[in-house]
Amino acid sequence: MTAAVDPHLRFVRPVVPRTPNGCEECLVLGSPWVHLRLCLTCGHIGCCDSSPLRHARAHAHDVGHPIVQSFQPGEDWRWCYVDEQYV
């Protein structure tokens, strides 16, 4: 059986990280983060759900960009916030 393809993959674009030094919002606020996520629609860098402010999830819901990729060295997995699954 073949797994279904996530329909939100159509939002994935070639992107350049907007703030490669850290979470875009946390850098402004001076807030700490745990891990970083790269929005695959616009290049926004946000902090993960284990971080205090969860900016990657907020970005996905606020602007409708559903898929992120881990921005951690050595990781290349992708996550869809709409379907709450790896893609």
Number of strands: 5
SSE succession: HEEHEEE
CATH superfamily descriptor: Zinc/RING finger domain, C3HC4 (zinc finger)
The biggest beta sheet is recorded as:
5 strands, antiparallel
The assigned structural class equals alpha+beta
Proportion of residues in β-strands: 15-25%
CATH class descriptor name: Alpha Beta
Please tell me the total number of domains: 1
Cross-sheet strand order for the largest sheet: 2-1-3-4-5
Q: Uncertain runs with pLDDT below 50, 5 residues or more?
A: none
Termini distance?
16 Å
Q: Helical percent range?
A: 10-25%
For this entry, what is the oligomeric state of its chains? single chain
Shape: globular
Count of helix runs = 2
Averaged pLDDT: 95
What is the secondary structure topology, with strand pairs?
Elements: H1 24-29, E1 36-39, E2 45-47, H2 55-63, E3 67-70, E4 78-80, E5 85-86
Antiparallel strand pairs: 1-2, 1-3, 3-4, 4-5
Describe it.
With 87 residues, this protein is of the alpha+beta class. The protein has a single domain, classed as Herpes Virus-1 (2-Layer Sandwich), CATH 3.30.40.10. The chain is 17% helix and 18% strand. The protein contains two helices and five strands, in the order H-E-E-H-E-E-E. A five-stranded antiparallel beta sheet has the order 2-1-3-4-5. Strand 4 (78-80) and strand 5 form a beta hairpin. The chain is globular.
Short description:
The protein is built from 2 helices and 5 strands, in the order H-E-E-H-E-E-E. With 87 residues, it is an alpha+beta fold. It has a single domain, classed as Herpes Virus-1, CATH 3.30.40.10.
